[in-house]
Amino acid sequence: MFEPVVAFLITSMARTVTGARSLWMGCAPEPVQRIYFANHSSHGDFVLLWASLPSALRKLTRPVAGSDYWNKSALRRYIISRVFNGVLIDRERKDPVDNPLQPMLDALENGDSLIIFPEGTRNLEEGLLPFKSGLYHLAKRYPQAQVIPVWIANLNRVMPKGRVLPLPLLCTTSFGAPLQLTEGESKELFLSRSRDALLALAPEHS
Question: What order do you get walking across the sheet with 113-116 strand by strand?
């Protein structure tokens, strides 16, 4: 009942604090199934990316997040599950027979779009960490979903580690052109190509 109000407050705060701008450079904000993949430098990354989408797209788009972090308290569980309708994954793989991608595959099968961070963990350095293989497997299993690179700029500087109040810096989310796994393309080549497409959206590369 209160989830739309909470979502509105969170997204409004995210846009106000960061002065966020959405730059649709290679695609348009259309209601089609997508896998948005982005760089990861802050806990607020998925919030800002989700807030950067038009309202109609937010209803179709689910952020992927680690259950180890979001299940630590009732408040976190409420926010990720009820407000953001997030897809929780087990990054620790307590049972080796479980497929960590299954929750994402189920969401795609349901027609949802996803927000993922293929580096797998926050990167506090410049550039990008090597990509995990999940992006490749999702693109292979669901070729009908557009794979969209999104560069999130400046969020790690707005709220650097250890700072209580945010710095007044402009953040941008730059949406690139869709990528598609080509027939016979190897995992290594696709991940390298995806990484290059994401880096190309960074301000210093544009």
Answer: 21-24, 172-175, 146-153, 34-38, 113-116, 61-66, 87-89
Residue 183's H or E segment, with its range, is none
- The number of beta carbons lying within 10 Å of the beta carbon of residue 72 is 10
CATH number belonging to the domain at 3-205, selected among 3.40.50.720, 3.40.50.300, 3.40.1130.10, 3.90.850.10: 3.40.1130.10
Beta bridge partners of 62: 114
Full-model pTM: 0.88
Residues near 13 by Cβ (< 8 Å), separated by ≥ 6? none
CB 11 within 8 A of CB 4: no
Q: Residue 10: helix, strand or coil by DSSP?
A: helix
Q: Where are the domains of the chain?
A: 3-205
User: What is the dihedral sign for C-alpha 147, 43, 154, 15?
Assistant: positive
Angle at 89 between CA 33 and CA 124, to 5 degrees: 90
The predicted-structure confidence for 162-200, as pLDDT tens digits, reads as follows 544 445 457 789 999 999 999 999 999 999 999 999 999
Q: Which portions of the chain are predicted below pLDDT 70?
A: 1, 18-19, 43, 92-97, 121-126, 154-169, 205-206
